[in-house]
Specification:
about 375 residues, alpha+beta, Ribosomal Protein S5, domain 2, Pdz3 Domain, 6-stranded antiparallel β-sheet, 21 strands
């Protein structure tokens, strides 16, 4: 008898308890994968926001009333003016991370500036302190410029003419230094920068000018005077219409500058939490509006930026693109900006309701206000010159 062959199909055979059987795999849940990916992303964002880089960030700020019931300018403690003039600001952030650097560069209204380029190498606290002092200086310059434009006598005082810069190859090159203070020219006392300018202009190219100079010592004192003789050169192409004007090649400012403001006016500017000199022109126009007709804007909402000198010269500022955003948000119709920054502001305002206006001095700003039917009847035709 033969044994039957073993069937090859074991599908119906019950497996032995000791036989190997594959353990079915448990299906992975999708939420675990999602949780892992999200966790990695969160960790990456935290890491990128923890590492700072050497940049400062400038964002759009606000347009703040200069005069009127909510304005920064008061006259004898009372708010005055139309309230249609606005200064403009930017928001400044000193802590910039790798995340900011990666993603804010793509934002058209955020500007990242290298710390040294913005501050000149000083710390953030020193930079803010410098900005606070610059704001104080701009408030004083605005008061002087406005009051003189309205016919008030505002004398300037000082301790000499401070040398800010010496032109390479000029008559003063190698004789004067930055930080020198000119106290006498040809034996006559020099109290303010204008005294020195007038004394030089009284000469002809080739004349010898005698200067008495106090020069800073190593300990910050000013021993002297040091007697220096220079021969001015002709202004040439640098002075169209006056090529024979005598120059010695220096830039000056009044040392320890101060002004005697008329006390009867009672002007005050309260601009807390704002730094820098860029509100100078806005303050000036706000003061003029508050002291005269309260209608120099002709009813139009006008934003302003630009530094101001006591003689009414308007200077450039930073962050004009970001300020233009603030002007748009405040629904201002016009934005007065320094000539040097007209192109940047115009490019940002393109397609909006804001019209950008370029001004180089206070009289140009007033002329524009007159052109839009501002009431300038309380403003003299000419400003009062410095005494």
């Amino acid at each position: 008898m033969r044994a039957a062959p073993e069937p090859t199909d074991r599908g119906m055979v019950v497996p032995s308890p000791l036989g190997w059987q594959p353990i079915p795999a448990r299906p992975r849940k999708a939420w675990r994968w999602i949780f892992g990916v999200v966790g990695l992303l969160v960790a990456g964002v935290i890491a990128l926001n923890s590492v700072t880089v050497g940049y400062y960030a400038i964002y759009p700020g606000e347009a703040i009333p200069v005069d009127g019931v909510r304005g920064t300018v008061t006259v004898n403690t009372l708010h005055a003016g139309s309230g249609n003039l606005f200064l403009t600001t930017v928001t400044f952030r000193s802590r910039v991370t790798v995340w900011d650097q990666l993603f804010n560069f793509a934002h058209p209204d955020v500007q990242l500036i290298a710390q040294r380029d913005l501050t000149g190498g000083v710390s953030a606290s020193q930079y803010l302190a410098q900005n606070a002092q610059a704001m104080n200086d701009s408030e004083l310059a605005a008061k002087v410029a406005a009051l003189r434009r309205l016919g008030y006598v505002v004398p300037e005082r000082g301790d000499g003419a401070l040398v800010l810069q010496v032109g390479p190859g000029s008559a003063a090159d190698g004789r004067l230094k930055e930080g020198d203070v000119i106290t006498r020219i040809d034996g006559r006392a020099v109290a303010v920068a204008g005294d020195a300018t007038a004394a030089v202009r009284a000469h002809k190219p080739g004349d010898t000018i005698s200067l008495d100079v106090q020069r800073p010592g190593l300990n910050g004192s000013r021993p002297g005077p040091v007697h220096i003789a220079v021969q001015p050169t002709a202004c040439g192409s640098r002075c169209p219409g006056d090529p024979n004007r005598a120059l010695i090649g220096i830039d000056l400012a009044t040392d320890q500058q101060r002004f005697d403001l008329p006390t009867q006016v009672g002007l005050n500017i309260e601009a807390s939490n704002i730094g820098g000199p860029s509100a100078g022109l806005a303050f000036t126009l706000g003061i003029i509006d508050a002291l005269t007709t309260h209608a120099i804007t002709g009813g139009h909402r006008i934003a302003v930026t630009g530094t101001i000198d006591p003689d009414g010269t308007v200077g450039p500022v930073g962050g004009v693109r970001q300020k233009t955003v603030a002007v748009e948000q405040q629904r201002c119709e016009y934005f007065l900006v320094p000539t040097d920054e007209f192109a940047a502001a115009t490019a940002r305002a393109k397609g909006s309701h804001v019209k950008v206006v370029s001004v180089a001095n206070l009289d140009q700003a007033l002329a524009f206000l007159r052109s839009i039917h501002g009431d300038l009847s309380g403003i003299p035709a000419q400003s009062t010159p410095a005494p």
